[in-house]
Amino acid sequence: MNMRFSGASMGTILSLTLFACQPTNQPSQQPSPSRSMPSASATPQVQSSASPTIPSVGPVSTPSQPMPQLSGNPQISVPVKLPSEVSADVSFRQDIVKILAQLVPDVKEEPVVTEITRQHALQIAMNPKDTNFKVLANYEPVAASGLQTLILSRGKYPSDNLLSAYFSDSNRERLLQRFQQQVSDSLGVLPYTHYGVEVLRKDSSWFISLVLLTEIIGLDQMALTYSGPQNLLIKGQLLNDRYSQPEGLVTLPDGTIEELKLTSSGKAFELPLSLKSKGYYSFEINVTGPLGPQPATNFVLAVGVPYPQPDNAPVPSPTPLPDLTQLRSRLLELINRDRQAMGEAVVAAESQLDKASQSHSEEMIAQGYIGHNSPIVGTPQMQANLFGVSELVAQNIAISRSLENSQKELMSSPGHRKTMLKPDWTHVGLGVAASPDGFLYITQNFFVRRFELDALPAKVKVGETIHIKGKALKTVGAAGVFVNGAIQGSPLDLAKTTSFDIPVTFSQVGKQNVRVGLSDPPVNNAYQFTFYNNWNLEVIP
Question: Which CB contacts under 8 angstroms, 24+ apart, belong to 499-502?
Answer without folding.
Answer: 499/469, 499/470, 499/471, 499/472, 500/468, 500/469, 500/470, 500/471, 500/472, 501/467, 501/468, 501/469, 502/467, 502/468, 502/469
